[in-house]
Design a protein that fits this description.
nine-stranded mixed sheet, two-stranded antiparallel ribbon, alpha/beta, 285 residues
Length: 285
């Protein structure tokens, strides 16, 4: 375990991100500096922030505060699934936010494959004007074998395509927990996660061309905490077929024992620094 990445390692990460050998895996911490353009409030990104925002700023019962999917399930049972969708649409689709510094940095590198478990649209903004593929996770849908929606952008508009139509040379933006654009699709409640993770383990939540692209890749986990089972199960399946020794790196300033054990098991090296500190090293001044 190291605390500050060496210059050589930092350079290797940046080159690897740019050429696709290293895949950025973005968690809530990459949005830590994002605020509303209207009133300056922080964007709800972490589990606790999302729960408070969904409940009008008020804490929910302690057992519901443990994790956003549990709280979202409670809201879904009481007010319907559309209530959760409306909240996420309003939060990430209708509100205007400042630009995340980490997204601005990654946009200069233009990684050819990115995984982003947040539900905001900043990653999509980074590739606006550039043709790319977009994968949004979905759950509990009938009439399909897939648990994803696949779109292609010509640099302006998105249109739905089948995996067989995908130009696999294009950059791939994978948002497994969904987004409000180009049309809302979210993994949010416990029921969503149960369905999604089950199909992810069965191979139906990842397009076949991504399964080919991800072989032997390493991952740089930015803004991720790994002390919740749902996020760890999603991660473990999405990085299947990763390189070994190491499979990648996780930037966690103060990792706990559970995170250390998990990362050791899947071959991820912990670097004890947060993602914004990495940015300060990557872009001095």
């Amino acid at each position: 375990m190291s605390t500050i990445p060496s210059t050589d390692l930092l350079d290797a990460w940046q080159f690897g991100l740019a050429d696709g050998r290293i895949v950025p895996y973005l968690g809530p911490g990459v949005l830590a500096d994002v605020t509303s353009l209207a009133d300056g409030r922080a964007i709800p990104a972490t589990s606790g922030q999302l729960i408070l925002a969904m409940n009008g700023g008020r804490p929910m019962a302690p057992k519901l505060m443990y994790e956003f999917p549990r709280a979202a399930m409670n809201v879904e049972l009481k007010r319907g699934r559309n209530a959760v969708t409306r909240f996420l649409d309003s939060t990430y689709g209708a509100t205007r936010w400042t630009r995340a510094a980490l997204h601005a940095w990654l946009a200069t590198l233009r990684p050819p494959y990115v995984i982003d478990i947040n539900r905001d649209t900043q990653l999509l903004d980074s590739y606006a004007g550039t043709p790319h593929l977009l994968i949004l996770g979905c759950a509990r849908l009938g009439g399909t074998d897939y648990r994803f929606k696949l779109y292609v952008s010509d640099g302006g508009r998105y249109r739905v395509i089948s995996p067989a139509e995908a130009d696999t040379a294009l950059p791939v933006l994978f948002k497994p927990m969904g987004a409000p654009l180009p049309e809302p699709s979210y993994i949010a409640s416990d029921a969503d996660y149960v369905d999604y993770i089950t199909e992810l383990m069965g191979g139906f939540a990842v397009p076949s061309f991504v399964k080919v692209r991800r072989r032997g890749r390493r991952y740089l986990l930015l803004g991720m905490r790994l002390d919740r089972d749902t996020e760890r199960m999603v991660l473990a399946d999405l990085i299947h077929d990763a390189a070994v020794e190491p499979a990648g790196w996780a930037l966690i300033a103060e990792p706990n024992a559970k995170e250390r054990r998990f990362c050791q098991r899947i071959g991820i090296e912990i670097v004890e620094v947060d993602a914004l500190s990495l940015l300060a090293e990557a872009v001095p001044g």
